[in-house]
Fold:
Amino acid sequence: MIKNYLVLTFRNILRQKSYSFINIFGLAVGISSFIIILLYVQNELSYNKHIQNAGNKYRMVEIQYPPGIQEQHVAVTMGPLAAALKSDFPEVKQSMRITGGGTLFVSYGEKHFNEENTCFADTNVFDFLSIDLIKGNPASALKEINSVVLSEKLALKYFSSVDGAINKVINIANEPFVVTGVMKDITQNTHIYFEMVMPFVIMENRFDWMRTWGSNSLDTYIELVEGVKSEEFEKKLPEFIKKYTSESWQKLEMYIQPILDIHLRSKHIKFQTYNYKQGDISQVYIFSAIAILILIVACINYINLSTARAVKRAREVGIRKTSGAQKEKIIFQFLGESVILVFLSTIIAIFLVEIILPYVNKLLNIELAISLTNWTFSIGIFILIIILGVFSGSYPAFYLSRKNA
Structure:
C-alpha cells in the first residue's frame, strides 16, 4: 500500500511539474531560511556552554553611584577581590582574575608579529575556563613569572610545530618569556577569547595600584560550591564590601552574573574587559520569531496552492470513493504526499543552506555549519518534516476527502 502511495505521489509530481516546482521550491526557500536563522540562534545560545560546571561559575559585577551620574553596572573589579572572596567565603570553590594585555609586539629570531589577543591571568585560568593544553601542565604552566602559554595557532605560526614550541624563548614587548605550554585554540563561542596568556602577577608587579581596593581594572570570576544558591551568596556581599572598602566606596554594591548569561545578557553593563562578540538576547527572540513566521508563511503558501489544485483532483477523489476507497485512506494518501513533498523540499533546503552559509559566516564573522552526523540536528530535521508535512497537508487532505465527484 505504501509503495502504491509513493508511486501515485511521484506520478502526480511529474504530471504537474509547474505546480510541483513552485510548491517544493517555495517550501525549500522557507525551510532553508528557517535552518539558517535557527543555526544562528543555536550559535548565540551556545556561548560558554563548553565550560565545565558553568552553572556554578559567575562574574563579579559592581553597581557604582558616581556623583552626578546615574548608577552604572561595571564588570571591572579590584585586584585583591578574588583572593578575599576565596578566603572569606567557604561557598567559593575557586576565584580567578584576568585582564587584557592589548596589542603586544612579539618576536622570535627573524620573525616579528603584533599580537592582539593577549591577556594576563591567574594560574587556574585553564581549569576555570576548561581550556585543554596540548603540551605542558595546566596546573603549573603559569607558575613562573616569565612563562607564557600560546595557542596552537600561534605555536604553528612561530615554530611550525607544537612540539617545537615548548621551552623556546620569545620576546614579548622586548622582554624574554619561556613557552611553557601550548593550548588548544579557544572556541569562538566564548566571551573570553585569547591566543596568548601570561601570569597575572606580572601586572601586579608592574602596577602597584593593582594590589589596592581603590582600583577597577580587571575581571574577577568565582565558582560556587555545588548546591550554593547565588541569591543567598549575594546577601552576604554588602558586609563583605563594608569590610574591605573605605567610606568613599560605601555606596558600592556587587552581584554575581552567571557566566552563561554574559554573552547575551550584558547590555546593561557599561564597562567590561571581556565580552567577545557580545550578543543580545532580544535579538535571539526576534530572530526566533522571524524563523517561525517564515515557516508558517511557507506552509500557508503550500496550503493555498494545494487547495487551489483541489478542483482538478476532485474527480480523482470521486472516482476512488465510487470504487470503495475509504475516507481515512484518502486522507492518509494526501498527508503522505504532503510529507514526501516536504521531504524533497528539505533536501533542497539543505543544499541551499550549504551554498549560502559561507556568505553568512563571512558577513557575520561567525562559523555556522550543519552536520547530518549530529543526531540532534538529524532528529530535529526528521521531526520538522513530519510536523510540516502533517500541518501543511491537513487542510488539503480533509478538504479533498469530502469531495464526492
User: Anything to note?
Assistant: The CA atoms of residues 357 and 363 lie 10 Å apart. The chain has two domains: 2-47+281-401, 54-262. The chain has a mean pLDDT of 86.
